[in-house]
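Lab meeting, item 3. Inverse folding demo.
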């Protein structure tokens, strides 16, 4: 059971909730703050004070006063009108993360919602009811308004959900779990949608997959080093300490450990004096990716525990402040950075694939073919890797450098952070397939060298990998192999 308090949610807890189905609840102290904040909202309504989003309209309508008898209708209209997302839905795991993160943000006690709103969000998480949330339609400022509105609809018994493997009306899933829909009151609709939880949820899922993939990239690269009889001296600790980047030093250390008992690596001058950059510079390139990922992780950790709606309520309602914490710029930058960093793992991997299949660059059979000429072997797999790398280059164009004004120019600068997070996730998906191709090629190549000469760690990878993709004895539909390896890398519970 993970206890949320709006302050301390971490990646380990999120991973357990998203991928292992851990239950969630709230701390009593955090709920006490929620209740205090709620009392402040009710007082504002009773006194008919003019406070944005509580007794006024939204966006350009912020100057329109709303009678206290209409504040509930105001919130309902907000959710329905803003639920206009389009495109394919977010993956279920992202919807689950979004619901979790919205509850955690509200538990900080600055948003003025009733406890029942948070309880219902946690009910969805614990019952594995995941709102169907279209991916497109958020500008990443004023919060992820469209995506979060689709989430909020489910609390009202409206919209659709993923539940027990099916896409069904929300009211049916709630009824099956005995969960009562709620009716929104003052401030609650705005509190539910005025936040960065769509981009952050997508970012968290992307980061967790990227972290796993970065470790896998080192393991697959080690297999390629053996396949090409790479020079191990390039990974000597003194080289990397001399530069001083911690992540670079750590990558080199992990490669050395993986290959410590290999009889397929060489010393400088033994076969050649220097390897190509795609082998020799693995610590420098992969290490730089880890630097970027550490930055991304830091920003996501802050945002997972951030109050991002507007207005925020302080001092028991004596101070109600309109601000801009919903602006997604910090996460927009982080997501663009993540896309660029992971794209480079694919970029350098594709160059290693070329060295594995190009007979002008190695002494292996051309294109690792069992019968060069008659059979093409891995020739077109390299084409696929090159295509994915090229696609990544377009996806890595920063979304955060764009902004289009909205709400009659009241909201005149936005982050596009949700677009950035979606692009980062697609880059990760593409990169995994590139690494799957490198794994297939390096497994084939290293067997020409002799698996008995391999390091224990890489030989274990090879033996397990052969249960996923068999040896290439003749040409076949390699798309099936790439997808099988891709699935193994994504879903496998092995660790490096």
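The presenter then showed the designed sequence:
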């Amino acid at each position: 059971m993970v206890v949320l308090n709006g302050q301390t949610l971490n990646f380990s807890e999120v991973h357990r909730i998203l991928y292992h189905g851990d239950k969630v609840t709230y701390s009593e102290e955090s709920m006490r703050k929620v209740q205090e904040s709620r009392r402040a909202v009710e007082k504002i309504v009773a006194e008919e004070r003019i406070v944005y989003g509580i007794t006024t309209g939204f966006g350009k309508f912020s100057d329109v006063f709303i009678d206290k008898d209409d504040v509930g209708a105001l919130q309902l209209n907000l959710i329905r009108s803003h639920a206009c997302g389009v495109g394919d839905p977010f993956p279920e795991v992202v919807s689950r993360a979004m619901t979790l993160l919205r509850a955690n943000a509200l538990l900080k006690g600055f948003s003025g919602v009733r406890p029942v709103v948070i309880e219902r969000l946690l009910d969805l998480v614990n019952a594995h009811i995941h709102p169907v949330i279209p991916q497109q339609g958020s500008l990443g400022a004023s919060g992820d308004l469209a995506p979060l509105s689709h989430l909020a609809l489910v609390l009202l018994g409206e919209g659709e959900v993923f539940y027990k493997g099916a896409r069904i009306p929300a009211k049916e899933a709630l009824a099956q779990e005995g969960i009562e829909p709620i009716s929104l009151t003052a401030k609650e609709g705005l509190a539910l949608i005025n936040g960065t939880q769509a981009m952050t949820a997508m970012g968290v899922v992307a980061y967790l997959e990227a972290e796993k993939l970065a470790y896998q990239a080192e393991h697959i690269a080690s297999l390629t080093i053996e396949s090409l009889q790479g020079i191990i001296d390039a990974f000597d600790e003194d080289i990397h300490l001399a530069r001083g980047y911690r992540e670079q030093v750590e990558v080199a250390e992990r490669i050395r450990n993986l290959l410590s008992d290999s009889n397929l690596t060489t010393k400088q001058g033994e076969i050649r004096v220097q390897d190509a950059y795609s082998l020799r510079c693995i610590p420098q390139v992969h290490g730089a990716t880890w630097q970027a990922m550490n930055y991304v992780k830091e920003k996501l950790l802050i945002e997972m525990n951030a109050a991002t709606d507007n207005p925020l309520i302080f001092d028991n309602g004596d101070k109600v402040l309109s601000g801009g914490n919903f602006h997604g710029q910090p996460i927009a930058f982080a997501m663009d950075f993540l896309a660029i960093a992971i794209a480079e793992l694919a970029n350098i991997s594709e160059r290693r694939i070329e060295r594995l299949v190009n007979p002008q660059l190695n002494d292996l059979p051309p294109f690792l073919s069992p019968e060069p000429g008659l059979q093409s072997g891995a020739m077109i797999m390299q084409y696929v890797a090159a295509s994915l790398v090229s696609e990544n280059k377009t996806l890595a164009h920063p979304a955060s450098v764009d902004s289009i004004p909205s709400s009659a120019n009241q909201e005149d600068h936005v982050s596009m952070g949700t677009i950035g997070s979606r692009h980062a996730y697609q880059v990760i998906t593409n990169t995994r397939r590139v690494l799957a191709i490198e794994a297939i090629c390096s497994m084939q190549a290293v067997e020409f060298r002799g698996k008995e000469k391999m390091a224990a760690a890489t030989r274990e990878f090879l033996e397990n990998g052969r249960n996923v993709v068999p040896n290439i004895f003749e040409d076949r539909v390699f798309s099936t192999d790439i997808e099988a390896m891709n699935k193994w890398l994504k879903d496998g519970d092995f660790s490096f």
